[in-house]
Automatic annotation (TrEMBL):
Family matches, as CDD domains: CCP (cd00033)
Highest taxon of source: Eukaryota
SMART domains: CCP
Keywords assigned by UniProt, alphabetized: Disulfide bond, Signal, Sushi
Paired cysteines (S-S): C147-C190, C208-C251
Listed name of the protein: Sushi domain-containing protein
Signal peptide (residue range): 1-20
Record flagged with keyword S-adenosyl-L-methionine: no
InterPro entries documented for this protein: ComplSys_Reg/VirEntry_Med, Sushi/SCR/CCP_sf, Sushi_SCR_CCP_dom
SUPFAM superfamilies in UniProt: Complement control module/SCR domain
Annotated Gene3D superfamilies: Complement Module, domain 1 (2.10.70.10)
Amino acid sequence: MHAITKILFLCICSLTSVKSQAITGCPTTSFDRRLKVWQHGDKLYFRCEDGYKPLSKGWWGEATCVHGVWSGVESCIEEQKCREAPEIPNGEGILGNTEQHGQTQEMIFIDCNEGYSAKIEELTCRDGRWDLNGSLDDICKSNHDNCSPPPKVENAVITTCYRKQYPSRSEVTYQCFDNYIMEGKATINCIAGEWKELAIKCLQIPPCGIPPALEDGDTKTAIKEHYSHNETIEYMCQSHYIMEGEPYKTCLYGEWTGHMRCLRPCIVNEDEMRQHNITLKSSGTKYLVHDEIIEFRCTRGLSTGTVAMRQRCNSGVLVLPTCRE
Ligand SMILES: *[C@@H]1O[C@H](CO)[C@@H](O)[C@H](O)[C@H]1NC(C)=O
Ligand SMILES: *[C@@H]1O[C@H](CO)[C@@H](O)[C@H](O)[C@H]1NC(C)=O
Ligand SMILES: *[C@@H]1O[C@H](CO)[C@@H](O)[C@H](O)[C@H]1NC(C)=O
């Protein structure tokens, strides 16, 4: 097997050498005028004059005469200019120019093949070299591990910009619309080309109906038929009534939460006082708000002592002391 390969190889080699020997007569003029040449048989060795370099590579080159034409002969470019676009694995570099500060800047625009995406969008020419930070292999990277845009979730949006490709290990976060509540994890990750842990759902939160009435009180604002989740309504009590608890109710998951009560005032009744043989210690209002203190004195006799002469109004209830002779 090995021997056969060797023989074949030898045959091809001898054939080519026979061929090239047969060719003569390539022109010695019409080269780039900045090209310095030295001809030897059907070979031409060349370099560029100072301040110039061959277009493709190195500082000298070799051309061969094939069918009356020099094959491999190059033109010269200025030393500080960039050469042709390099071969970019899995993509292509397109030569172009941009204007920068009134100067023409040579550029290579990167165009990656299908299934690859560009890590670098363009290369610039600097001091006669394509300014490449890293390897040419790193320009067009395979999309194999990339994820396509994350899937739609009903009643949700994603809080980062839309992209066609998401690199491995990138993450996106969903956000439910108002009045929807999230079930599952909001953030998903791109792992080996797939979005992982997509278990998110946005469930509608039921609204609340008319807020409950408050005894001896009312809402501060006009009421509506429906309230959304987290909406709050403020209550107040009638005058002389005192509120116990925070004045707010909140619609949470379709239910009104928050508790308050309007505590009644006490009214001091003249007739009742007369019956108990008492009167007010000092003339004052006959309306007491909850928790207010009032003091009585006897109109006849002495206090029976079972009820103190100082009393506190407790949610509309006021206990009267009694005096007797
Ligand atoms: C070159 O690449 C390295 C890492 O890859 C980066 O930190 C640096 O900023 C790059 N330099 C330029 C000029 O882009
Ligand atoms: C409810 O409202 C509070 C403050 O207004 C806010 O911080 C909270 O995130 C809201 N919750 C929901 C589930 O909308
Ligand atoms: C008020 O005083 C009179 C006279 O002493 C007495 O007869 C009456 O019982 C007293 N009232 C009460 C409720 O004790």
